[in-house]
């Protein structure tokens, strides 16, 4: 018997990927933010996320509107990371006995608000009973062929950048867990970088969204691009609100940024020569793509980057 | 507070359908076996099913291979009901602590066997932790535009037919529940009528698969086509193995056929004049599409048809 935690979440994904074949018209299967299917004048993007009560959301402090909203945003963020745009959504729900119709309506209000914001439509799904509350979202989107951004296209010498400050989601989560007032808004009702992803797509090499923390996302890029990376700790953007939360809880905000996740910012690599093309987008340079080894650099010391949030080990 | 069971599964689907809009290029949204998206020379079909341990499968008597297999077949059956064929699959799994890697491998063996049989490929998904075991499958397929079969196209005077014997899945389930030996194979490792759906598609008017029992499927056709139906009880095909199981358990096999579900046969309506076109497919005529009212007819008595299996009421 091998425990799932022995493999970990990403070991497991590798194992599953090795068990399935490459498909008809499949440009990219398991192993990126979305699956990519060929089309006449575009690629089709498909992404799915399963969110389980207790593991991924908490009904004590998240309203049903917020659960609906966030489950959509997490998936739109995966579409954004490919440089694409979302079109259609399928929503599967398993609902326990204590969910009533009004609660369900609020979940859908949250989902519909997100659908309106990101210009997509719910076209189907499945609603069933379960002893635990589970939400599964599928989003189908598109990207122009020349704008597809994969994790695997980083080039040695690229700058590694992020579209915004990190650690903000786990700051909120840790505040809520501790029952301490503070900056919880972003954790409860995050947004994602769809517009920025569209603007970045023509210029960047590799792109990924921050689901599991900067460390984990940079490691994915390195593994799939066959490169290394140096991340400069003092360049990681952390807002004063996140720092305040860290002070209040006596926590390290860099740990939130590196290993927390759910910030839904985009991490991308881009040749330095193209940085002037993206000057209309707020971004922060946090590191360099190198030949090999992935390190966090602080005061000229370097430590190996380690993976981010792992659902089977945390 | 309104309980979900006050609305029931199909009342809930109607309510959710009314809360979401019609989408871009959406030929059919919520309310059929698949969502249907426009394309250049074909329609794209998308279907999803969420299966929750305890509600939809039972780890005591279903092997992981069988859980993987059946979860795929249930979704292929939805594609078959539209007249289409499957291409790509996304698998989301929430796994509790007691699932080990070998168990997960067996689930994937079941899924891969079904993928091979129905000529489709697993291209992505999500694997996460959950306190309960949940499987969500998404299948994307296609159908030629002229062969799309909806629930809403039944015509008065059509014959109502099924592709095989009914009640066989719930016969197995009730045997397993009672711990009695018998015909449980079909419940544990069902197949579906993909090939038959493809052969029927050019000729039939309305089509649906048997997920929730013949009553429920005929009522869906009637509601969406604006017709009635007469189902002749003595024409409902029930195999001798299913009858034996019913005898052994002192159950009514017609109840299994009408309200059990998971038989994954196809129910279709077809003009009598076209029956000779489908003579290469085994089928059973079980009723007529009428002007209004949906009835089960027995010995010249008629009773109103009532809905099938309801996940919120059962």
Overview of the molecule:
The structure is a homodimer of 314-residue chains. Chain A contains nine helices and 13 strands. Chain A starts with a helix and ends in a 10-residue tail after the last strand. Chain A has a seven-stranded mixed beta sheet with strand order 8-10-7-11-9-12-13, with helices on both faces. A six-stranded mixed beta sheet of chain A has the order 1-2-3-6-4-5, covered by helices on one side. Chain A is globular. With 314 residues, chain A is of the alpha+beta class. The model of chain A has no long low-confidence stretch (mean pLDDT 92). Chains A and B meet through helix 1, strand 3, strand 4, helix 3 and strand 5 of A and helix 1, strand 3, strand 4, helix 3 and strand 5 of B.
List the helices and strands and how they pair.
The structure is a homodimer of 314-residue chains.
Chain A: H1 4-19, E1 26-28, E2 35-37, E3 43-52, H2 64-80, E4 85-95, H3 101-117, E5 121-129, E6 134-143, E7 159-162, H4 168-178, H5 185-188, H6 194-200, E8 207-209, H7 214-225, E9 228-232, H8 240-249, H9 253-259, E10 266-270, E11 284-290, E12 294-298, E13 301-304
Parallel strand pairs in A: 4-5, 9-12
Antiparallel strand pairs in A: 1-2, 2-3, 3-6, 4-6, 7-10, 7-11, 8-10, 9-11, 12-13
Helix pairs in contact in A: 2-3, 2-6, 4-8
């Amino acid at each position: 018997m091998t425990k799932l935690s022995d493999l970990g979440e990403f070991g497991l994904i590798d194992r599953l990927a090795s068990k399935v074949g490459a498909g008809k018209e499949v440009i990219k299967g398991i192993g990126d933010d979305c699956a990519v299917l060929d089309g006449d004048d575009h690629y089709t993007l498909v992404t799915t996320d399963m969110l389980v009560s207790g593991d991924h959301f908490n009904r004590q402090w998240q309203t049903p509107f917020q659960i609906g909203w966030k489950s959509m945003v997490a998936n739109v963020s995966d579409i954004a990371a490919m440089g694409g745009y979302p079109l259609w959504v399928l929503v599967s729900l398993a609902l326990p006995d204590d969910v009533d119709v009004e609660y369900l309506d609020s979940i859908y209000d949250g989902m519909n608000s997100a659908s309106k914001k990101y210009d997509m439509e719910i076209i189907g799904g499945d609603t069933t009973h379960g002893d635990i509350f589970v939400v599964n979202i599928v989003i189908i989107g598109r990207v122009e062929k020349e704008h597809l951004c994969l994790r695997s296209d980083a080039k040695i010498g690229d700058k590694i950048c992020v579209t915004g400050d990190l650690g903000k989601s786990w700051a909120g989560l840790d505040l809520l867990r501790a029952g301490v007032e503070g900056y919880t808004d972003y954790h409860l009702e995050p947004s994602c970088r769809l517009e920025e992803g569209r603007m970045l797509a023509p210029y960047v090499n590799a792109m990924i969204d921050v689901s599991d923390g900067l460390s984990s996302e940079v490691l994915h890029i390195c593994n799939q691009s066959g490169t290394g990376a140096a991340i400069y700790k003092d360049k990681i953007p952390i807002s004063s609100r996140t720092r305040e939360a860290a002070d209040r809880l006596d926590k390290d905000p860099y740990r939130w940024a590196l290993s927390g996740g759910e910030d839904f910012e985009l991490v991308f690599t881009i040749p330095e020569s193209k940085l002037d093309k993206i000057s209309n987008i707020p971004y922060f340079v946090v590191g360099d793509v190198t030949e090999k080894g992935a390190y966090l650099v602080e005061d000229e010391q370097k430590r190996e980057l380690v993976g981010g949030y792992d659902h089977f080990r945390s």
